[in-house]
Amino acid sequence: MKNEFCLVNIKELLCVGLKDKTKLMGKEMDQAFSVPNAYLHIKDGRITSYGQMHQFNQQGLLGINIIDVKERYVFPAFVDSHTHLVFAGSREGEFVDKIKGLSYAEIAAKGGGILNSAKRLQNTTEQELFEAAKIRLEEILQTGTGAVEIKSGYGLTLEDELKMLRVIQRLKESSPVTIRSTFLGAHAVPKGLTKVRYIRLIVEEMLPAVAAEKLADYCDVFCEEGFFTEEETILISKAALKHGIRPKIHANQLNRSGGVQAGVAVGAISVDHLESIDDQEINLLKKSETMPTLLPGAAFFLRLAYPPARKLIAADLPIAIASDFNPGSSPNGDMQLMMSLACIQMRLTPTEALHAATINGAYAIDLSDQLGSIDIGKKANIIISKSVNSFEYIPYAYGRNHIEKIIINGEFVKM
Questions:
Q1: For strand 320-321 and strand 218-223, is the pairing parallel, antiparallel, or unpaired?
Q2: CA 376, CA 367: separation in Å to the nearest integer?
Q3: Which CATH class is domain 79-363?
Q4: Cβ–Cβ contacts within 10 Å for residue 178, how many?
Q5: Is the pLDDT of residue 61 over 80?
Q6: Do 218 and 293 touch, CB atoms closer than 8 A?
Q7: pLDDT (tens digit per residue) in 203-250
Q8: Of residues 113 and 104, which shows the higher confidence score?
Q9: Contact at 8 Å (CB) between 44 and 328?
Q10: Which residues contact 137 (CB under 8 A, 6 or more apart)?
Q11: Nearest CA to 226 among 195, 197, 248, 201?
């Protein structure tokens, strides 16, 4: 298709006019920011103009492709700011253990969990990892994700962490999806090493090697009981900052772990999970620029209490939602489903859920100047819905793919 075209007869154009906002906070997350009965002009992969159909001057756009979307909803492609999309094999055996009543910690204690994935990954070649991850990346693209963060963390050795990050780099180079990479060496402590020795390995060998090859945009730490403490998280994050790698933190998934405190202390771009959070930590986040990122798929799969989304929004905080796509606690990367879970289980409105999955997700990976809203100059990463009576129907009718067409970088994706 030509690199210049115009979508016309859009029922409603959503997430519009946010160019001066890097994120939406509190009550403004539920504001519509929409244009009814609209058109959208795209050229050279960018959004060039939009407005209501009565403003559309077809004579000024002679010679370009005019596409009648026939009363569909149009909105930005999703930005999934937290995934572990590169992994070796699945963990459905642990799924059965969970059904039988074993906890996340109990499964980890008997060699399951992250250490299980690490063992498999260490025995998998880079090419095999790349081919499997490429299939998953295509799957999430087909459900509307146009930008994604992907972590390492299943290597737990210098060689295997670099292997994972090189796979992510290859995905960046081979896919139209915008990708951010995160080094998560501090995901667990490998067998045979003390935590002190492993942290020294992360700080003195892994981070310098990752930085030398420019393989990571961020550095993450699993700040959780039995994994890494608040103090250890700060130590590793500060070491990453010395290499110009900004922190992101796994915080408060299973317990109040100090992850929020650590994240705010080191200026993390986001603190993710937050199933456990108190008023003091909410007040800390209010004084920061750190994005609270909620992962409803993980809470659903692990049968945890959901993060208190309404309480965070009532405190005038922004929130993002992400899939946490991984083999152990959220084996699904469909952001439409994450929006449904956010609405059903965390009581977000559909508008709040959309903003959490677009502009606020973009903020959580430093992309809100390029993606996450319909604004002139931003990348044309666009979703065209199927024919539905209202936008609210999309999260309401959970588990279905409500997308008719996807545009990434101004090109229609084959579906």
A1: unpaired
A2: 15
A3: alpha beta
A4: 22
A5: no
A6: no
A7: 999 999 999 999 999 999 999 999 999 999 999 999 999 999 999 999
A8: 113
A9: no
A10: 85, 148, 171, 175, 177
A11: 195
Each residue of 352-403: pLDDT tens digit? Answer: 999 999 999 999 999 999 999 999 999 999 999 999 999 999 999 999 999 9
- The mean pLDDT of 278-298, rounded to a whole number, is 98
Superfamily of domain 4-76+373-412: Urease, subunit C, domain 1 (2.30.40.10)
d(CA 124, CA 258): 34
Using alpha carbons only, give the angle 173, 135, 367 rounded to the nearest 5 degrees: 45
Domain map (residue ranges) of the chain: 4-76+373-412, 79-363
Average pLDDT over residues 45-52: 96
The alpha-carbon radius of gyration of the chain (Å, integer) is 21
Strand-pairing partners, residue 65, are 5
Domains 4-76+373-412 and 79-363 share a fold: no
The one-letter amino acid code at 283 reads N
CA distances from 45 to 17, 78, 178, 257, 389 (A): 18, 17, 13, 43, 29
